[in-house]
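Objective 1.3, modelling of assemblies. Example input:
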Amino acid sequence: MLRIPKPSYRFVRSISTKYFPNEPSAPVFTTSSVPGPKSKQINQELGEVYDNGATYFVADYFQSIGNYISDADGNKLLDVYCQISSIPLGYNNPKLIEAAKSDEMVSAIVNRPALACFPQSNYKDILEQGLLAAAPPGMTKIWTSLSGSDANETAYKAAFMYQHAKLRKGADFTAEELSSVMDNKTPGASEMVILSFDKGFHGRTFGALATTRSKAIHKLDIPAFPWPKAPFPQLKYPLEEFAAENRQEEQRCLDELENIIVNSPKQIAAAIVEPVQSEGGDNHASSFFFQGLRDITAKHGILFIVDEVQTGVGATGKFWAHEHWNLTSPPDMVTFSKKFQAAGFYFGNGDLQPKQPFRQFNTWCGDPTKAILAKAIYQEIKASDLVTRTATVGNYLYQGLQTVVSKSQGKFLNLRGENYGTFIAWDCCSVEVRAKVLQACKDLGLNMGACGDLSIRLRPTLLFEKKHADVFLNILEEAVGKV
Amino acid sequence: MLRIPKPSYRFVRSISTKYFPNEPSAPVFTTSSVPGPKSKQINQELGEVYDNGATYFVADYFQSIGNYISDADGNKLLDVYCQISSIPLGYNNPKLIEAAKSDEMVSAIVNRPALACFPQSNYKDILEQGLLAAAPPGMTKIWTSLSGSDANETAYKAAFMYQHAKLRKGADFTAEELSSVMDNKTPGASEMVILSFDKGFHGRTFGALATTRSKAIHKLDIPAFPWPKAPFPQLKYPLEEFAAENRQEEQRCLDELENIIVNSPKQIAAAIVEPVQSEGGDNHASSFFFQGLRDITAKHGILFIVDEVQTGVGATGKFWAHEHWNLTSPPDMVTFSKKFQAAGFYFGNGDLQPKQPFRQFNTWCGDPTKAILAKAIYQEIKASDLVTRTATVGNYLYQGLQTVVSKSQGKFLNLRGENYGTFIAWDCCSVEVRAKVLQACKDLGLNMGACGDLSIRLRPTLLFEKKHADVFLNILEEAVGKV
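Predicted structure (C-alpha cells):
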C-alpha cells in the first residue's frame, strides 16, 4: 500500500457525498478483467452497424454514479478520463438530472429552434445565468455552436471576416469577389491563414483539422489548407531543475514564431493555442511564453484565440486555464466545449461579429439544451466552490503522484501539472509500458486515458476529492508494480 | 376568399387533432404586425451579447403548438418554415415530450458519452429502433454526427480515406505520408477533391462550405479548397410544357459533368448532390438526371453522396427524396440532419469505414439525446403513416397553389414540387415583391421562408393537413392581393 504524504494543509470537508450518497468507496468488480464478456459481446454487435474500432468498453450509464463509471458487466471503475475530459460533475449528478427534467429543457428538446432566426424569448437569460456568467475576464459576447471543432471553426471564420473587413475599410464587396468566391477562388475566397502550434489539437472538421498537428493518424488522407505551424516549447522536468533551459526554449519558440510571422507569404488572420496541448501529450508552457504570444500577435495585428475546449471549466484550478497567465490584455477569442457540453467562443470586440447577417450563421447556431445544461453546471460549480476545491485536491494528487513516479523505477517520468488543479499528466518509459499500465489499472478498477506518444493524462470530474485521489494513487502504484 | 379547387380524392381523417386538441384553427393576433414590440425589445437586448442580425422574430416555444408558432407577443402564426425545415411533428408534440422526459433521455443528457470510446449499452437498440429502421434501401450502417455540415464532412472524410485506401492496396502509410501530413502537405494530405453542383448547399464548416455554391454571402472571405463544381439543370416550368427542353438541359448538365470528370486534374473522391437544391432556390431535377449522376459516378469510381439534410424524413412524400428516383443501385452515402435532429450518414459498403481506429473519430461522435429523439420521431411517423399523409396533403396544397399562382397576375411563377409532398416552392417576380409577400403573410399570421434569389419555399411539419393548407392558401392569396 502506498504511504500517502501527509498533506500540508487542512482539507475541506467532502462535498461529493452531498451529491452522491451512494457512490462506492472503491471500485466494484463483477469480472476479472475489463472489458468483461457482456461488454465485449455488446460491442461486437454494435460493430455490425457502427464504427466501434475505438471502443474501450461499453458503459452502463444508468449504473454509473459520481466518479465511478459502470461497464455493461456491472464493474464500477473510478473514472479519471471522464468521456475525454467531459463529465463535469460526475455521472448522474442529481442537480443536472433536475435541470434535465425541467420544463425549460423539455421544451428545448422538442422545439429545437434555429437560434439565429427564431431565438427563444429566454435565450439571453439562459446565456447570462450560465455561459456568460462564466465568461473569462474582458469577454462580454458569445457565439454558440455544437462541438469543439465547430467552436474553433466559427472563431476562424470570425477572424477571416474581421481581417478582410479591416482591409476593406467599409467598402462593399467587389464584383470580382462576389463572382470568384463561387468558384472557390480569390479574391472572394480568402488566402489568409490560421497559425497553430506543433502538437496542437483543435478538432476534426476540415478547417479545425488543418490547425490540428497532434498525430498523423488524425490527418492522413484528408485535404488540408496550406496553413503554417510554429514550434511549441518542449519543456524539461522537473521544472525547477531546468528553469534556465526552459526559458531559453520558450524564447526560441517565440523568436521562431515571430520569424514565421514576418516571413509568412500570406496574412495570418489568427493564431490558436491550447493552454495545455492535450491530445498532443499534455504539453505545458509557462506564463512567460503565453504573454509573449499575446504580445507578438497583438504587435502584428493577428487575432489571438485560446482553445479552452479541454482546459476550460475549472479542471486546472482556475475556471479558465488562461487565467493562470495574468495576461496584460485578454485573448481576442476563447473557445469552449466538453465540460460545458455547450460549445462556442467568447469575445469582447464587437467587430468580430460581421456587419452583414447570414455570414456567421447556420441552421442551429448551437443547441439550447446544452446551454441550459451549461447553466446548471456553472451554477453548481459556483455554489459548491468546485474550482477552489479542484485546485486543492489537485495539489494533493500531484504530491501523491510525485511519490508514485519516484518509486516507479523509471517507468514513469516527466510529471507535470503542478498547481494546475487535477490537470496532471506524466510520461511512460515506452508505449508498451503505457498500454500495460492502462490495462492493469482497468483491471484494478481505474479508467485512465492516454495522450501524445507516451503520456497518461488525468481528467477527473470537479467532484474528485481526497478520497478518490487515495483510491487512485493506491491503484496506480499497484498497477505500476505489476508491469 | 379563395375558392379551393375540389380535391379529386377523399381525404383521410385529420390526425393532428389527436396530437394537438388545442391547436388553433386560425392564426391568433395580439399585435398588428409581426414582430411585435415585445419581440423587438427582447431581440434588441439579445443583440448585446449574441449576433441577432438574422432574427425574424423572437419565439415563445412554451406557447407554440402543433403547426402554430407563437412569437414573444403571443401572436400565433401558422408555420410553414419550421426552423428551416426542422420541426418534424409540430411544436410541443406530446409524444416527443414523452420521449424527452424518459429516463433514457435524462441519462443521455447528464451522462453524455464519448460514443466511439465508451458507447452506452443500449446505443445499438436506440439506432435500430430509430435511425437505422429509417435507413434508405441498401444502407445498413450509420455514422452519427452533430449537424448537416458535420454529416457531410464526415461523409467526405470517409470518401477520401476510402479512395486512398483503394490506391494503397493494403499497403501501410509511407514515411513520407506520415511526415508530410503534419505540415499539411501531400502526399500525406490529400489532393483529391469533392465535386458539387452550382447552387448546391452543403453546410458552413470549412469542408462543407467548399462544396456549398448557393450564394456569395455564405462564402465570402473564408478560405476554400480548389474543388470543382458542375452545372445543375435549370428547368423551365410548367414541366409538361417544356419536357423536351428540360430533357436537353439535363443531358447537357450530365455531359458537362462527365467532361469535368474526364478533365479533372485531381481525382474526384466523391460527388454530392441534394435531391432538391434548397438554399439555392428549390431547384429540382428529374429522375433521369439523378440516374445519370449515379451511372456516371459509378463508371468513374466516384462515390455518390446524396445530401438529404433538408429533403429527408418524409416531407417529399417519400421518407427519403431519392426514393423518388428508382435508382438502379443505391447511393454510396446518404446524409441527414434537421427533421431527425440527429445527424450523420448512412452507407452500405463496409469499406467506407476506415480499417484503423481513431481516423473517423471525434469526442462526441454524435449525441445520444438526438438519436433517442429521432427514434421517437421515426416511430410516430410510422405509427401515423405521416409520409403517405404528407404526400396526399402535398397534392392538395399544390393544386391550391396552382390557383393562387394563376391568379397572382404574374407576381408568382414557376411553381414546383408536384408530387413531391409539401416540398413545394415558387418564384416571385422580384426581390421586392417577395419581401412584401413574406411580410404581408407574417402580418396575416403565416410564417414562410425564402430561398435562392426569388423563391419562397414551403417546409411545414409532417402534421400539416388539409385544414392547415386551407388557412395557408387563404392567407397567401390575401397577401399577394395586397402587394
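Residues 148-168 of chain B form the longest helix (21 residues).
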